[in-house]
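Hello everyone,

My group is preparing for a crystallization screen and wants a predicted model to guide construct design. The compound we'll soak is calcium ion. Before spending weeks at the bench, it would help to have a computed complex in hand. I've included the protein sequence and the ligand's SMILES below. Output in structure-token form would be ideal because that's what our pipeline reads.
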Amino acid sequence: MDKLTTERWAILGIFVTLVMGFVPLYISYLRDFGPVREDIFLLTGSVEAIQDQLQQVEANVSALSERLTELESAPSTDLPSGPVWLQLVSLRCHEPEDAGGDEAFLRVGGRRVWSRSMDRESVENLLTLPAIQFAETTNVSLWDEDGPQWLDSDDYLGTVQVSRDQLEQGDVTGSFTLDGANYELTYRVISSPNNVS
Ligand SMILES: [Ca+2]
Ligand SMILES: [Ca+2]
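Reply:
Good plan to model first. Here are the tokens for the complex, ready for your pipeline.
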């Protein structure tokens, strides 16, 4: 063999030796670290998913924070602290206490404010009565006048409690249902006695 051919064989030998040595090493590397690398990919994927979720949560927190700021800066819906008035609207008799109809009368805060004879299914308009000022609550009670008092005292038919919480809620109804009677009261709680219509 000439010198060139010898060198070629030598280079080929070195190459084959390197390849033969490298292949088992690579196989060993895959065996030892292949699955780990897969796990690392999976783990990396999970980390990315968690990062995405974190970003989502941060975005949600940010949106909520903005909404909270909006709500805090919104005008207060607290009820005004000034005086309020009770405006009686109507009284409907579904069932009177007396068989032939009642001599009905209303008391507001214990004071008699109205009276009228009422039969079954009759309705009385109370908007003509002046509005009555009160603080937090006041009671409206309905009675049937009987008599004479020493023989047959007036019959108490029930109480409707009116509260300033009902301010400007429009028409509110309450019932008087004691002693077999059934009446329905409609009223309004208003911030000015001139709001009647
Ligand atoms: Ca009676
Ligand atoms: Ca009566």
